[in-house]
Structures are given as structure tokens and as C-alpha cells.
Design a protein that fits this description.
The protein is an alpha/beta fold. It has helices at residues 18-28, 58-72, 92-102, 107-110, 144-147, 169-172, 180-187, 202-222, 262-273, 279-297, and strands at 2-7, 41-44, 77-81, 113-117, 125-129, 139-143, 151-157, 159-161, 165-167, 227-236, 251-259, 305-310. It has one domain: Rossmann fold, CATH 3.40.50. Helix content is 35%, strand content 22%. Strand 8 and strand 9 (165-167) form a beta hairpin. The longest helix is centred in the C-terminal third of the chain and has 21 residues, at 202-222. The chain is globular, with a radius of gyration of 18 Å.
């Protein structure tokens, strides 16, 4: 079992605000353990596409960035990867930054330098092995902002996901840390933007999920295992941020969770979410438990978390 810390949104007051609660979570969970003065930390976040209205608020990212800065004395590199489809027909690097800034994501609001993971082209990175002989991928190209850092913090806006089941620590800390061409290889022909309801076959999904899980091993290798994960159960929508639209949240605000174990963290997030979901949402979460079992079998963590609740 692995420990997961959960701070809920009860007992709110002027001196126990959302930012206070998030800061307390990071402190109580010892998120900054292993960091030292001068270390370079990449803070991987999810920025929303134009048309998606429920992304993480910049103030929440800033609270996490402040914890990194306090531990290292330096600002983290806040990053996200280019979206795989350029909806607005601009140069990808330019359009990505324009959309991100329009959502309030900038160095000033986030408390750290904001860059594109993978460089301006989205394809700058280095290759890291997944670390075991029967790996489907063999190795993965990790984006430059992540692989050139000493440590990685993964701050995920949790949503349901049409392909992976749940967009959280495992999805954002693996697939979303790769360069663009590598994410295309992981998808292996599966359309990540299935708007018409016609999803891929069960076999295609199984292969995709295995590849996405393996990518976590390469990402962890790129920072020598120094990874901290934080999940935000905040405006949980049916689709992740890279979609150009967003349905209303299926769950609004249940707080934040943190752990060094991405499997335990996503499992705990499911446990917190499931009682608040509709029957359809609970069915999707139950399907994701199979992904968690596969992740555990790959040695990514424990699917049986111990949740320590804070208020």
C-alpha cells in the first residue's frame, strides 16, 4: 500500500482558503522531500484548449509553484505539451502560447517560467528506456523541459477520459510528458479526438493503455525517479483539456490529493470521485480499475492506497 493525502474543501475561512489548503497538503504530504537548494524542477500542468472552460485556475498552479520555490530557492519551469491538433491554423508554438495566455497562463500568474515541453516545435527531447525486456515501447522521447530538470512535479486536473478512463497522474505524468511525435506513436493510429462517439476497438484501447502506462517508466527514468504527483478534483468534466469544448462538470470540487505513487493517487481519486458520479460515470471509473491493475503489474505503484484525509 502507498500513502495518499487528501485535503477536502470543508471548513473554509479567510485563513483556510483553497490556496491555504493546497499549501497544507503539500506540506503534510512532504511533497518537497528530496528537493534541495538550486535544483531545477519541472512542474507539468494541463493547459486548456480554446473552447474548454474548466481548466485549472492559474492561482492553483501558483500555489504549487510556490512550494517548489520555497524548497529549492528557484522558480520551477511550468510546462505543458503542444496539442496534437492545431485547430486554429496557426504555427503550433505561437497558437499554443496565445491560447495559454488567453486562459491566464503566464510566468507572472503561475509563479514560474512557462514554456512548451518539447520546445517551440514540440519535438525536442531525449530518449529514455522503459527499463524491462518485454516492453512494448522499448523507450520514449521525453520533452526537453522535463528531461532537462532534476525533478518533476505533475499537477493534474482530473477528468474522465474517453480512451484512458481517467486523466490524472498516470496520464499526465506519462503520455503528456512526451514529445509530439512520441505521443503519436503511443496512440498508434487511435484517434485521440473522437467527437462522434465512435470509439476504437477494445483491442486497440488495450494496446494504447499499455503504451501510455509504459511511458511513465521512461519519464521517471528521465528525472531519476524524483517525481511528485498532485491531483486536483476540481470541475471534473467528461473530457480532458485538449478537447476544444467542455461539457458541464460531472463533479465539481472535492479538493486535492498528493502522493509519490501515481497508481495509488489515481486509485484514491477514483475512490473519492465514485460516490459523487452518475451511473454512467461510475461505469467509466470501474473500467479504469483495470488500467490501475495493469499499472501495478508494471511496477508503477500500488492500486491499494491508504488515504489520509485533511480538512
Amino acid at each position: 500500500m502507498s500513502n495518499v493525502f487528501w485535503v477536502d474543501l470543508t471548513r473554509m475561512s479567510f485563513d483556510n482558503s483553497v490556496a491555504h489548503k493546497l499549501s497544507r497538503l503539500l506540506r503534510e504530504s512532504a511533497a518537497s522531500e528530496g528537493l534541495s537548494q538550486g535544483m531545477r524542477v519541472a512542474l507539468k500542468v494541463n493547459t486548456a484548449e480554446s473552447g474548454y472552460e474548466y481548466g485549472l485556475r492559474p492561482s492553483l498552479v501558483r500555489a504549487v509553484a510556490s512550494a517548489v520555490r520555497e524548497a529549492t530557492g528557484t522558480q520551477p519551469t511550468v510546462c505543458d505539451g503542444l496539442k496534437l491538433v492545431d485547430y486554429w491554423n496557426g504555427a503550433k508554438g505561437t497558437s499554443f502560447l496565445d491560447v495559454a495566455r488567453s486562459k491566464g497562463y503566464s510566468a507572472d500568474t503561475l509563479g514560474g517560467g512557462f514554456v512548451i515541453n518539447g520546445g517551440y516545435s514540440g519535438d525536442e527531447g531525449n530518449l529514455y528506456t522503459c527499463g524491462f525486456p518485454d516492453s512494448v515501447l522499448g523507450g520514449v522521447e521525453v520533452g526537453s523541459a522535463v528531461c532537462r530538470s532534476d525533478a518533476l512535479w505533475v499537477f493534474s486536473h482530473v477528468t474522465l477520459h474517453p480512451l484512458f478512463g481517467l486523466a490524472g497522474a498516470l496520464w499526465n505524468g506519462g503520455f503528456e510528458c512526451l514529445v509530439g511525435r512520441e505521443r503519436t506513436r503511443v496512440l498508434q493510429g487511435v484517434n485521440a479526438y473522437s467527437f462522434n462517439g465512435d470509439g476504437p476497438s477494445a483491442e486497440s484501447l488495450k494496446v494504447l493503455r499499455r503504451r501510455a502506462l509504459e511511458s511513465n517508466l521512461g519519464v521517471k527514468a528521465s528525472v531519476e525517479g524524483r517525481v511528485t504527483y498532485v491531483n486536483a478534483l476540481w470541475d471534473v468534466t467528461p473530457h480532458p483539456e485538449y478537447f476544444p469544448f467542455s461539457d458541464a462538470p460531472v463533479v465539481e470540487n472535492l479538493g486535492f490529493l498528493a502522493s509519490r505513487d501515481p497508481v495509488a493517487l489515481d486509485a484514491a481519486s477514483c475512490s473519492v470521485l465514485e460516490p459523487a458520479l452518475s451511473a454512467e460515470g461510475r461505469e467509466r471509473i470501474r473500467e479504469f480499475y483495470e488500467v490501475l491493475q495493469a499499472a501495478e503489474s508494471l511496477g508503477l505503484g500500488s492500486a491499494q492506497p491508504t488515504i489520509q484525509r485533511l480538512s
